[in-house]
Write a structure and sequence with these properties.
The chain is an alpha+beta fold. It has a domain of about 100 residues. The chain contains 10 helices and 27 strands. About 20% of the residues lie in helices and about 30% in strands. Strands 8-7-11-14-15-5-16 form a 7-stranded mixed β-sheet. Strands 10-9-6-12-13 form a 5-stranded antiparallel β-sheet, with no helix packed on it. Strands 18-17-27 form a 3-stranded antiparallel β-sheet. α4 crosses α10.
């Protein structure tokens, strides 16, 4: 381990007070349990899914001898003859390494072809393996080689499984390596001065991941993956987006997550809040409010402005002409489950009620055929633009209106913030980092009552 990484780990592991809870610098088997800390676990035996290899161990310098969890990320669900190659020596086996199918030096292109529930590996010529049930596993032969799929390089392994709709392609890799391809996309490849925000983002993303990846690596999800690499979960783009500053933050915070009451928490985040974050029930249906996800103000006391004001998209406006307004009615009816959602002329568009954080709780459309009320969970999609991009946030007001014969012909909304508003404001975290606030304080602000501790 380099001196720089050791120093950064020491910073995180130094005895510190988080909300009245002391985090010990070294967690060892004989240490008494403290609030927010779990005892170290014995590394599990290698599972068949790992081909009999020893588990990856992280954090040895800190005394935390726990294996890094393995995450399964679905890259494509309906691939037709996906092509895989590598940057160096590699091979394709049947799952668990029972049968070696092909070996390559990195210049070959191999297709994974499907026939019903069977798979085979085929080369550019006439070479092909026999049809087998699979799944197939592509693996680099050494640490210098990496797999390539869909014009991207990936750490870890690629799994190919036959499904009713095509070939499922999954990237299997350690969580710490997965985060190297997540954090640069989620918060950007930032400068060294933003490191506190990057560290906070890394810990939040790791917590979010661990909530979806079981600690028992032998428990494979029935669908074959834990998350996709899209905005539905966390955007993941493999090795090509990795950045030295991001990797430094991943290494410096290795294995650290957020806990509340001793449990790892789900730690959502978003782009910018406009000055105040939101609670879960303000953004999503079927969820409960959590004590660590309460709305918090995000105003810089030095300037009186939001910390996230440096975001280029923190302030926005959206314009709707008559045709778009009519289509808004159709989408609102469709979202409400109407059997025959048809466009209608709009006479009035107004905010019906506001949430505790000041966001729109309902939008009321008064139309030529009656009144339609849009709940908070549907507002952003109902007010999407002509390309289908959802509204930046629900933190807005009606700015201007134009009318002809009692019908709205144009409306301008003016708003602040970008995203659902729950959890950590990413641009706010960047603003706080640039103001000299450390990562612990950033996390403590956006997730009140949480502490930082080891995951396993």
């Amino acid at each position: 381990m380099s001196n720089t990484r050791t120093q950064r780990l020491a910073k995180w592991l130094a005895p510190s007070m988080f909300g009245g809870v002391v985090i010990a610098a070294v967690v060892v088997a004989c240490a008494p349990l403290q609030p927010g800390i779990v005892p170290p676990v014995q590394p599990p035996a290698p599972t068949p899914a790992e081909g009999g290899r020893a588990p990856v161990v992280r954090g040895e310098a800190s005394g935390r001898l726990a294996p890094d969890r393995t995450v399964l990320i679905a890259l494509e669900g309906r691939a037709a003859a996906p092509i895989v190659t590598a940057t160096g020596a590699w091979r394709i086996d049947e799952q668990g390494g029972r049968v070696a199918l092909v070996r390559g030096s990195g210049t070959e292109r191999w297709r994974i072809e499907q026939r019903g529930g069977l798979l085979r590996v085929a080369g550019d010529g006439s070479d092909a393996t026999p049809w087998r049930e699979g799944p197939f596993v592509a693996r680099p032969a050494n640490g210098e080689s990496h797999l390539r799929f869909g014009n991207r390089r990936y750490r870890g392994e690629l799994l190919f499984t036959a499904t009713d709709s095509g070939v499922l392609v999954v990237n299997r890799l350690p969580v710490e390596d997965y985060l190297r391809g997540v954090v640069p996309i989620e918060i950007g490849t930032r400068q060294e001065g933003d490191l506190a925000a990057i560290e906070a983002q890394t810990i939040a993303a790791r917590s979010y991941t661990y909530m979806r990846v079981p600690s028992d690596g032998a428990q494979q999800p029935a669908r074959g993956w834990h998350m996709t690499g899209t905005v539905q979960y966390q955007v993941y783009a493999g090795m090509d987006v990795e950045h030295p500053v991001i990797n430094e933050a991943v290494d410096a915070t290795a294995g650290l997550v957020l806990r509340y009451g001793g449990l790892i928490v789900d730690a959502p985040y978003f782009s910018s809040c406009g000055g105040r974050t939101a609670g879960p029930r303000e953004a999503w249906r079927g969820v409960r409010d959590e004590p660590y996800l309460q709305p918090v103000d995000d105003i810089d006391p030095r300037t009186g402005r939001a910390y996230c004001d440096l975001s280029p998209r923190n302030h926005w406006h959206a314009e709707f002409d008559e045709a778009r307004l009519r289509d808004v009615v159709r989408r609102a009816l469709q979202a409400g489950g109407a059997r025959d959602p048809r466009p209608a002329a709009v006479r009035k568009l107004e905010i019906g009620a506001r949430t505790p954080s000041g966001r729109a709780e309902t939008v009321v459309l008064r139309t030529e055929r009656g009144t339609v009320t849009v709940p908070a969970r549907d507002i952003r999609s109902v007010l999407a633009d002509t390309r289908g991009a959802i509204l930046a946030s629900t933190y807005f007001s009606v700015d201007r209106e134009s009318r002809t014969r009692g019908q709205l012909t144009a409306v301008t909304l003016r708003g602040a913030g970008n995203g659902h508003g729950v959890g950590m404001c990413q641009w706010g975290a960047i603003g706080r980092a640039r103001a000299g606030i450390d990562a612990r304080s950033i996390l403590r602000h956006y997730y009140p009552g949480t502490v930082v501790g080891f995951a396993d």
